[in-house]
Write a structure and sequence with these properties.
0% strand; sigma factor activity; mainly alpha
């Protein structure tokens, strides 16, 4: 029997709509379940992500070459994971941006091996809740604006790690979701958080000067 990915490619070569339908039939359920089970998205949001993935794949599938079913699935999953991450980030930004450093005091109890050489500075608590944000327009809230800008100045992976930890995902879960090694992930989180704190306060001071 012909490999599933070859069936999909052949169908896309015949008809875009038919290829899209077959792609959904063969891979849609597993992609949808990945978003639903692993991320803080509801059913409707997961379907929106799935449709985005199908749309993206439809535009580029015939430009790519695959040497195996595994190769195709890895490529497809990477597209879907990126779309899922974008949806999660958009949802978090819409609902709340919340830094509660007091709640993370246990993170500073890292072992000497974990924290050696990180060079943290202890800053005042940064805390932005959704209530505060919506009571005051984001453009008029200097702390919100500074924090948002600071988050954009760090790497995408570090930003994902911060947002996921803020939503109480474990380091093991984060490593699996982002496809990175768990080793030193805690240290990377602490460094990213310290960097965002420093950048946020620097932006606020600059705006006040």
């Amino acid at each position: 029997m012909e490999a599933k990915y070859l069936q999909v490619i052949a169908k896309y070569q015949e008809d875009l709509k038919g290829g899209l339908s077959l792609l959904y039939e063969l891979y849609g359920h597993s992609l949808y379940q990945y978003s639903l089970k692993n991320w803080a998205l509801d059913e409707e949001e997961c379907y929106e992500v799935l449709y985005k993935t199908l749309e993206t794949v439809g535009k580029v599938i015939l430009r790519n070459e695959f040497d195996s079913e595994r190769h195709f699935q890895n490529w497809l999953f990477k597209i879907h994971r990126n779309n899922t991450l974008m949806a999660v980030r958009a949802k978090m930004a819409k609902e709340q941006i919340e830094f509660k450093l007091v709640d993370w005091q246990d993170e500073y109890a890292a072992t000497e091996e974990d924290s050696e050489g990180i060079g943290f500075e202890r800053h005042p608590v940064l805390n932005i809740s959704s209530t505060e944000v919506y009571e005051e327009e984001a453009s008029q809230n200097p702390l919100f604006t500074a924090l948002e800008k600071a988050l954009q100045e760090i790497s995408e992976t570090d930003r994902d790690i911060l947002l996921l930890r803020m939503n109480n995902y474990s380091y093991d879960d984060i490593a699996t979701m982002l496809g990175i090694e768990n080793n030193q992930l805690k240290v990377r989180f602490l460094r990213a958080k310290a960097k965002v704190e420093k950048k946020t306060l620097g932006i606020i001071k600059e705006n006040m000067s």
